[in-house]
Specification:
By secondary structure, the protein is an alpha+beta fold. The protein has one domain (15-166). 24% of the residues lie in helices and 39% in strands. It is built from three helices and nine strands; from the N terminus they run E-H-E-E-E-H-E-E-E-E-H-E. Strands 1, 2, 3, 4, 5, 6, 7, 8 and 9 form a nine-stranded antiparallel β-sheet that branches. Helix 1 (25-39) runs antiparallel to helix 2 and helix 1 (25-39) packs across helix 3. It is globular.
Length: 169
Amino acid sequence: MTLGYYAAFPENIHYLSNYQSFVSIRALQMRILQFIGDINRKELIFEQISIPTIPDSIVIFEFGLAEDAGFNYLSAEETQRALDTIEAEHVGTLDFFCSIRYYKDNGAKRTALKFDYFMLRTVFRKGTLEMRVFHERGPRYLFPEDLANFIVKNVNGESKKTILRETNS
């Protein structure tokens, strides 16, 4: 069993960012997993994520974590299993599949729009995090860099101490 690594991750990515990390690899991995697990299937207003490409819209994320040749939806149980694995052993990469559902909210009526599908690779090294984002298909209502920025912003969250800072490399 290889939790977190997807061997068929695409070579040609659409966005790459590097960050300096001010916490241990394990603490950073746990924080990322907890955040992603917490937002799964929650309704968010587009403005909570980025500048909206669709005004008055709702966004719902569905993340899966790689395991062997596929991805497991990060339910509460699956998130806890991944956290337990990270606690017990070294994991250098966490690959995620992300389906993003969009809905136009017209007050009493909600209209479903096309979905976006992304893959996200997070590579952890001492003091650094590299994020690679691949847009698999969909209208790209949310840009790859917006997805990465949203995750980093929320990993930093309410913490008084900066956890991640983007670097120019």
